[in-house]
Amino acid sequence: MILYIFIDGIGFGKNTPDTNPFAKFPTEFFSPLAEITIPNSSKFHEMIYVKTDASMGVEGLPQSATGQTAIWTGINAPSAIQRHVSGYPTFTLKKIISKYSILKILTEHKIKCGFLNCYSPLYFEQIKKNPRQVSASTLIQMAAGIPFKTIEDLRNGKGLYMDITHEFLRVIGKNYLDPTDDLLIPRDPFQMGERLYENSKDYDLAVFEYFLTDKVGHDRNWENAERVISTLELFFQGILTHFNPDKDQLIVTSDHGNLEDLSTNKHTSNLVPTILFGKYSDSMSKKIKSLYDIVPEIYSVFDLNIFLNQKEFLNHS
N or C: which end of the chain has fewer CB within 10 A? Predict the structure, then answer.
C-alpha cells in the first residue's frame, strides 16, 4: 500500500525562529524544514527528506495549480504552459489532469485507489455554482470517476475531514448539522492519524490532502502556525503507530514553499520536501528531483510503464 499525502505550502527554510515556525515550535516531523536534525530516538528518524524542486525549470515563484498538477499527474505542468499558475487549474491544466490523473490511470489498470478526504455539502454546492473554481485534487477524482467521500462517510469513519481535528467543521457545520451532532466534537489528531492509516489499508494507493498550512502562511498567523504544526506532528505520529515499513510506503510532499518563511505572505522559491518512509524509500529518493518525478516512481512500484507525453500540451495556456 502507498499512502500519498499532500501538504500545501511547506518548504525547507532556515533555522531562524523569528521567521520560520518550524524552527520556533517544538516538532520532530518538521525539524528538517528548519535545518534541525531529528533525534535518533524519534519514530521519524528513519524517514528520508528529499529536497525537491517545485520551480521545475520555470522562472517565477511556484504556484498551486501548476505544482499540484505535477504532483497528481507526473507532467511538468509549468514547463508545459511556460508559467506558474496560482489557484485553480486553467483549461490546459485541466486537460493534463483529465488525461494523466494518477487515480484515473491506476484505476484503468485495476489498481484500487482512494481519496480519503470527506467533503461537506457546502463544498459540493460551491463547485456546482462555480465549476471553474475546482481544485486539482477534485479534478483528479473526477477524471477517475471515483465517488467523493461525504459527511456520511466521515460519520462512519471511512475518511477524514480536511482540517483533521474538526475545528473548521465546527464552524461551517452549524449551517447544516444538528448542534448535538457528534461530528462537531473536536478530534484528536493522533487518533485521526491512526484512522487514516486504517482507511488506507483498503487501497493500493490512498491519497489525503491538507491545505491549512498554506492559508496560515499567507495570513502570517503565528498562533495558527503553531496549531497546524502541532496537529500535523501528532497526526503523523498516529499514522506511524501501526505503519508497516516492510510492506507499506509513505510519501509526503508539497507544491511550493510558504509556511517556512513568515517574513512574507507570498510563496517562496525554496525547495520543498518529499518525505519518504517505507519499503521503496531508498530507490525513490535516488530518482525524485522535481515534483513531476513522484508519480512515475509510484507507477514503477506497480510495474507500470506509463508514457507521459508533456509535448502535446506545449504552447497552450
Answer: C
